[in-house]
Amino acid sequence: xxxxxxxxxxxxxxxxxxxxxxxxxxxxxxxxxxxxxxxxxxxxxxxxxxxxxxxxxxxxxxxxxxxxxxxxxxxxxxxxxxxxxxxxxxxxxxxxxxxxxxxxxxxxxxxxxxxxxxxxxxxxxxxxxxxxxxxxxxxxxxxxxx
Length: 146
Prior knowledge:
The protein is an alpha+beta fold and 146 residues long. 30% of the residues lie in helices and 46% in strands. It has a six-stranded mixed beta sheet. It has a two-stranded antiparallel ribbon with strand order 1-2.
């Protein structure tokens, strides 16, 4: 907590509420607006999709990564199952929903389970986001997609 003297009295500046930060992040993510999503991340933040690839570092790289996801998975959305909070972290148990283009060009909705571990700084910006996905479900969805 930061303490500051004001007119002879002491007050404490309250850290942003982690639940509010999480709700804002999820609402912003729902828009699929890359610039708005990226602004929720620290300039030197890290995102790591734990599916065999490397972590990406930096707000611009994180935005580009999410843009790639939205292009790969049209109509990307999510269903939240539960969220656990600490002072500067949330863990999100969720299911990703998206459309997958099949060989005949039609779209079919797919679902796969995910888990996010998200750390924020004192300003409420995401400094690290690790996303774990059920790769068996993703591979099955792709196999059925043609």
